[in-house]
Write a structure and sequence with these properties.
340 residues; single chain; D-Maltodextrin-Binding Protein, domain 2
Length: 340
């Protein structure tokens, strides 16, 4: 979740917006006025990346609906889908699309869902500000984070593997201390996909069952703030988190550009929005369609999430990038079709 002073600052601004919206109505591009006077409970769990957005939407929704209890947690996309497909939560937050085995589990559990794209993000590589690393190729990322990187604790060793898989092998000299999301995280899976880890591993002879994985000997955490603290604590640290968390890190942390073959591109709102940053991705929520059809509070919450206050205000205040207007409209249309 959003922490500390920034959390208080964001909420102050959003509470003002919610008050104005409740009093004057909300021309939000398709979901109507802010609902009010509802009761009930809503449970949301999943991605720690999406958690700040859902938390902000919940705060806004609660202003005119204080009797709706909304619980938002961020243990990771995989953990969220597990709870969701068991019918234990109403909405799953996800920083990746649902996987086939998770979809099958939902089907087995009789859970009907709708995938809703809500924001754009860029997985951001970080190092300590004392590091000389400025840009890494996808071959470098494989050499530092991939399944063949166990035991590699210096860039000298990483450079040898980088060259082996087509890289230049010119990462600046330093020791390596890797801290990153664990397997329960959607960011873990998205990084493997976007950085081409699995394809590179297969091309280099790694067995299929071991290719879609990161090294096994790094420090994993489901808490993005813990990862950032690791970056701050050592000049040899390297890791990755979602863009909003990286942007909120202090001066002790430096963001690293990524070169996927077209030159070094740094993560910014513009490069993520236009897709030129190689590790750009979409963020999602997955509501339970049947629950929304039966529970007015859940239905109204999703409608509100997909309005201007959710898809623009909360997304941007949480530090992510709003979807282009046509994709916002597509998300709303998908939801309307699912519940009609």
């Amino acid at each position: 979740m959003v922490k500390g002073k920034r959390w208080a600052r964001v909420l102050t601004g959003l509470v003002v917006l919610a008050t104005v919206g409740a009093a004057c109505g909300n021309d939000d591009g398709g979901t109507g006025d802010v609902p009010n006077g509802l009761t009930g409970s809503i449970s949301i769990s999943g991605s720690s990346t999406v958690e700040p957005i859902s938390s902000l939407v919940a705060e806004l929704f609660n202003e005119p609906n204080p009797d709706v209890e909304i619980k938002v947690e961020g243990p990771g996309s995989g953990d969220g889908f597990e709870l969701f497909c068991q019918g234990e939560i109403d909405i799953a937050d996800a920083s990746r699309q649902i996987e086939d085995d998770e979809a099958a589990a939902c089907d087995d559990g009789g859970i009907e869902y709708q995938e809703l794209e809500v924001a754009l993000d860029g997985i951001t590589i970080m190092v300590n500000s004392a590091s000389s690393i400025q840009c890494l190729t996808t071959a470098d990322l494989y050499a530092i984070f991939g399944p063949e990187s166990d035991g590699i604790d210096t860039t000298t060793d990483a450079n040898a593997l980088s060259e082996q898989v087509g890289g230049a092998g010119d990462i600046p000299a330093q020791d390596l201390e890797v801290t990153a999301p664990g397997e329960e995280s959607g960011t873990y899976d998205a990084f493997i996909d976007l950085a081409g880890i699995e394809d590179t591993a297969l091309s280099n002879g790694v067995a299929e069952e071991a290719a879609a994985a990161l090294r096994s000997d790094y420090q994993s955490s489901g808490n993005d703030n813990v990862i950032i603290q690791a970056m701050e604590g050592s000049p040899n640290a390297i890791g990755f988190v979602g863009f909003a968390f990286a942007e909120e890190a202090g001066d002790a942390v430096k963001e690293v550009a990524v070169d996927a073959g077209d030159g070094c591109v740094a993560p910014t709102t513009d490069t993520i929005a236009d897709g030129s940053y190689p590790l750009s991705r979409s963020l999602y929520i997955y509501p339970n369609v049947a629950t929304a059809g039966e529970d007015e509070a859940v239905s109204a919450f999703v409608d509100y999430y997909l309005g201007e206050d959710g898809l623009v205000t909360a997304v941007e205040e949480a530090g992510y990038i709003a979807l282009p207007t046509d994709r916002q409209d597509a998300t709303r249309s998908a939801w309307e079709s699912a519940v009609s």
